Amino acid sequence: MSNPRTLGELKRAGLEAPSRSVKEEMRKNLLAKLRAGETLFPGVLGYDETVVPQVVNAILSRHNMILLGLRGQAKSRLLRSLTTLLDPVVPVVAGSEIHDDPFRPLSQWSRDQLARLGDETPIAWLTPQDRYVEKLATPDVTIADIIGDVDPIRAARGGHDLGSELTMHYGLLPRAHRGIFALNELPDLAGRIQVGLFNILQEGDVQIKGYPVRLPLDVCIVFTANPEDYTARGKIITPLKDRIGSEIRTHYPASLEQGVAITTQEAWTDRSDKVRVARFLREVVEGVAFAARRDKKVDKRSGVSQRLPITALENAVSSAERRAIVHQEPLVVPRLSDVYAALPSLTGKFELEYEGELVGAERVARDLIRDAVGEIFSTYLGSVNFRQVIHFFENGGTLRLPDDAPAEEVLAQLRRIPELLEHTDRLGVQAGDPAPVVVAAGEFILEGLWAQKKIGRSDDKGFVAAERRVESELDPERLERLRNMKKQVN
Q: Is 368 in contact with 291 (CB distance < 8 Å)?
């Protein structure tokens, strides 16, 4: 059944909406979702026990709210998810700039339309997305952008007095009437513009250009801000903060598992059924972000966005995809060398402290990858004895693995090292898995041993013996052999 197209049809259908505000509408729909046990904000992960309960309390309290958090903490996504709490469709006067309710119009234009056409007044229907207005605050935003202004051209064409409401050009906030208005990065908004929001937050209306035009808007206002921006680029003026009902702090993933789940959801890796990303590699990529957030060379105040592991994983898959195409391999399997190939997606995602600036972003990123590999290696293979692998390099063995070499070639090189591939089952490798899968696991083991300083690495020879080994760790026969090798060299 189609929706009514005129006011008369709307009345005959008995669809006159009860007199309730948009905040009441959101509250009612939220309560229904809670009773039904539905997911409140699909796609927002890691906040179920922290942020989401606070957002729920704010909505149930009919509050305007602000989300405070560092970059890349899904603040904007959470705000956009609020549209799931709006009714599926609502009727408006067709052509109204501020989505006037046919039964309770605010604008003079809609009132005139209803008086002239009566039950024949055309009706349009808005979806939740139509009722969501978002604006990024910048220093050049004006009152006219947010609230509105007098339009002299409209006045001249219509023959209206400049004080008439019919000459008004409405800003974004009035156009969000009967919906949600989201303002991102609130501290970037000039103080005098923030003052212009006082009335709508406290009294629920706006005044345009000093003329006696009051619009008692029905709108839910939500903001986002980076707490560090209060002093870096601006601040939220105290009277405005006082009028915001709830202040909610967001955060980065609390655990590696949460981070992996978010990155898996957001990263574009399922390009075909030929792409296979190992769990340990996903954890390494996520571990880079966790390592960056605690590294003293990275600016903590700026934060490390969740976009870092997302873009890094996408770049790693692309690197593996390119190699597979060049060598005509049927399976795309990223390995650790592909994570290093994703450095361009890492270096721009964090700000460096002075110590980090001295060594450079690329060096810092490489160190972060190494730290992440070491931690994930300990999780999967920390209890495994790789003495034979270590002895291989201590006896003079070397192994250089070209980044773009085909999987079969690299696998042949890995098999030279005794017992290297015997424990790959702990990394999810099964008997009969193709060469790219085994190679990814083997390379991870070597990278893990290097990260834990059990073997070494050089630019020209690849993996080699560790530069320093405690002699007490070596058996007497091997120790004697090494001493004789040193004497021959001398």
A: yes
